[in-house]
Amino acid sequence: DALKAVNPDVTTEIEIEIPKEKSHGDFSVNTAMKLTKILRTSPQLIAKALTEAMNFEGTYIEKCEIAGPGFINFYLSIIK
Predict the structure, then answer these.
(1) Structure confidence at residue 13 (pLDDT)
(2) Model-level pTM greater than 0.90?
(3) d(CA 77, CA 63)
(4) pLDDT at 79 over 70
(5) How many CB atoms sit inside 10 A of residue 52's CB?
(6) Whether 43 contacts 69, CB under 8 Å
(7) How many Å apart are CA 50 and CA 74, to the nearest integer?
(8) Gap between the Cα atoms of 6 and 14, Å rounded
(9) pLDDT value at 20 more than 60
(10) For the segment 27-57, what is each residue's pLDDT rounded down to a tens digit?
(11) Chain Cα centroid distance, residue 45
């Protein structure tokens, strides 16, 4: 839904990774970096737009953060 909110005409495969370091969240995505060439803007700006469009209500996601060149790290409320 966040991707459609940022640009309804763009689609990409979302790759979910589990970071090696726990401080980088419970899982992360590199979607913003994959969209850089398509949207012709920086991955940090894309990641910011994506995170602002995300709604975690009714999910186990506690928060997300932008890291490095545009990764989005997610933290689950059920994993401590």
Answers:
(1) 87
(2) no
(3) 8
(4) no
(5) 10
(6) yes
(7) 13
(8) 15
(9) yes
(10) 999 999 999 999 999 999 999 999 999 999 9
(11) 12
Contact 36, 44 (CB under 8 A): no
Which residue is associated with the tokens 């398509």?
38
Cα separation, 27 vs 75, in Å, equals 7
- Per-residue pLDDT, averaged over 70-76, amounts to 96
Residue 73: CB atoms within 10 Å: 19
- Per the CB < 8 A criterion, the answer to whether 45 and 31 are in contact is no
Supply 38's token pair.
């398509």
Q: How far is CA 46 from the centre of its chain?
A: 9
Q: Which residue has the tokens 């060439």?
A: 37
Structure tokens at 11: 């689609």
